[in-house]
Design brief:
14 helices; 586 residues; 34% helix; 12-stranded mixed sheet
Length: 586
């Protein structure tokens, strides 16, 4: 099922019939008109920008959009120069005034390029097993038409840019994920972008309906311009302290910090997440049972995740958390997206897939160990990971599966014969980069649909692993470990796996982490691995961004002991109640 909300009158909320565009040669099955849209570079003079944008959109509409028989996205991109930290000011506006800003999504790639999308041109929610095919069709129903204030100057087109995210699995959502659909596609009205080399642009994306008159367009543009001015004015009023990614402070927490089960802390500045007791015991039991299944040859691998919760202080805001994630995890994909008043935020080390000009890139990450501030110890940890039979096999499962599933979509695959190390702030992984050339007609959404979920977040065989996860995880993963990224109207785009992530609700921050289970996995070791992975978000939500190494080690050790003890007590209770145990075995 697909639900579409457009930032226009109600008549625009229905997607038009796509039959008229079938059989065309472009990726989406609809013509995309090529026009240059790059305006001359300007300072961030909003009046100048709006005047130029207005002329370009009206000219574009007059040139041919009125002859189209469907909604069309008019795209105008202008070069601007906004101050340092401006994207984070806009993120603060999103976090503090959701009613006025509409849709909000933030994205930063490992190369340093970043963007924030605000306002709602189209907002589509999708459910069901064919969710990515439905998203692809929705985008096809809104073909892009580039706008320019110089109609005689031809050049490369600027495509419309959509942001897409989805849940790990298609299912009925459970708390705390009730506001999050199986998949969602967002076309923002305004897109502020900064490239890795520092070039800054502001893109406006306007949906024009079939039958719109010039008077309709003029009314729509006046509202569009008013909303843009409001966003800019609000950004200028944001306290400048929020734009400092490395030195920002969150002030004194008004919420008491709670420790992991059984843990004590000598420094309350580091929020320590709590795994609900039932989920803690379930995770440890699930690891033991899954490892036993694998040793018995029932399947090859399953990935089990757990949840930990921190009480949300009033100052745990997205505009403070995101800059910390970026400063502490520069080699990751940092993202933030809002649904109602909730935020899903993360810093993922893993690219699911990238498609650019026909070239495909996939990262395979599986196998994890800790980092150390001692260079010699850190090197030794990496060497042990590379030599680990368990981790090498876990990694090989992922690489083999990815290459098999790209068959038929991608040609000329290239990859190393052995993994290398990808070193992050808190952990290091085994990493293999897979590269190739996409076959004609494929889009990045086709690749996402084929690859998600990979064995790195599910297991192998995939269908069996998904059954194990559904049976043994005592929670809804929601969007954790799902695909998140962007796609343009050409079919190019980039998606990450939503790892190292958390859901921010009104009252709590829900953190998620998982571990790949193999035949020789031990519950205590897998708990420790997930604790390591939680640290990225722990540090980002801390009142002053601290990390406390010694306290962390004590907390992990004590929490493992507590969870193991609780699991043992539960087992003894089961033995005392044979009828309950019998039902569990069925």
């Amino acid at each position: 099922m697909t639900k579409v909300r457009a930032g226009r009158p109600a008549r625009l909320r229905q997607s038009s019939n796509s039959a008229a565009c079938r059989g065309k040669s472009d990726y989406w099955g609809c013509e995309i008109m090529a026009r240059t849209v790059m305006a001359s570079p300007v300072t961030f003079d909003l009046t100048n920008y709006i005047e130029t944008m207005h002329r370009a959109l009206v000219t574009s509409w007059k040139e041919g959009v009125i002859h189209w028989h469907r909604p069309v996205v008019l795209v105008y991109r202008g070069a601007v120069a906004f101050p340092e930290g401006y994207l984070n000011r806009l993120l603060a506006v999103c976090g503090r005034n959701s009613a006025a800003t509409g849709t909000c999504v933030y994205w930063r790639a490992p190369d340093g390029s970043s963007c924030i999308g605000m306002g709602t041109a189209v907002d589509t929610t999708v459910s069901g097993d064919q969710r990515f095919a439905h998203v692809k069709q929705v985008i096809a129903d809104y073909p892009a038409h580039s706008a320019t204030d110089e109609p005689t100057t031809l050049g490369s087109d600027v495509a419309a840019k959509w942001f897409v995210g989805g849940a790990f699995a298609v299912q009925s959502r459970r708390a705390p994920w009730l506001s999050w659909s199986d998949a969602r596609a967002i076309l923002p009205e305004f897109l502020f972008e900064q490239t890795a080399d520092g070039r800054q642009t502001l893109t406006c994306q306007v949906v024009v309906a079939q039958g719109d008159t010039e008077a309709n367009l003029a009314t729509m543009l006046r509202g569009f311009e008013r909303r843009l001015r409001m966003l800019v004015e609000q950004a200028e009023r944001v306290d400048g302290a929020v734009v400092d990614a490395t030195n920002s402070t969150m002030g004194s927490s008004t919420t008491a910090t709670t420790a992991m089960p059984g843990a004590t802390s000598t420094n309350a500045a580091l929020p320590t997440p709590v795994s609900p007791p039932d989920e803690s015991r379930a995770f440890l039991t699930a690891v033991a049972d899954t490892a036993a299944d694998i040793r018995a040859g029932k399947y090859t691998k399953a990935v089990l995740a757990r949840r930990a919760v921190v009480n949300r202080a009033v100052n745990m805001t997205v505009d403070r958390v995101v800059p910390r994630l970026e400063a502490q995890n520069r080699e990751t994909f940092v993202f933030a997206v809002r649904a109602d008043e909730e935020w899903f935020v993360g810093a993922s080390p893993e690219r699911l897939v990238q498609l650019s000009g026909g070239e495909v890139a996939v990262d395979c990450l599986a196998g994890t160990t800790a980092r150390s501030t001692d260079a010699a110890v850190d090197e030794q940890l990496g060497a042990e990971l590379l030599a680990s039979t368990k981790d090498r096999e876990e990694h090989h499962v992922v690489v083999r599966w990815v290459t098999e599933n790209l068959a038929g979509l991608v040609d000329d695959l290239e990859l190393r014969t052995a993994p290398t190390l990808k070193k992050l702030r808190n952990v290091q992984h085994l990493w293999t980069a897979v590269r190739g050339l996409v076959r004609q007609g494929m889009t990045v959404l086709d690749l996402v649909d084929r690859l998600h979920p990979t064995p790195a977040v599910a297991g192998r065989p995939r269908e069996v692993a998904l059954e194990v996860i559904a049976e043994r995880e005592q929670m809804d993963r929601g969007w954790y470990a799902g695909p998140i990224g962007w796609v343009d109207s050409r079919g190019d785009g980039e998606f990450a796996v939503a790892l190292r992530s958390a859901l921010f609700t009104d009252t709590d921050v829900h953190l998620y982490a998982g571990a790949g289970i193999m035949g020789d996995s031990k519950p205590e070791s897998e708990w420790r691995e997930t604790a390591l992975k939680l640290r990225a978000m722990q540090a980002a939500i801390a009142p002053h961004g601290e990390t406390v190494e010694a306290t962390f080690e004590e907390a992990v050790a004590e929490s493992v002991a507590t969870a193991v003890d609780g699991s043992a007590r539960g087992e003894r209770a089961n033995q005392a109640a044979p009828h309950t145990r019998a039902r569990d075995d069925q």
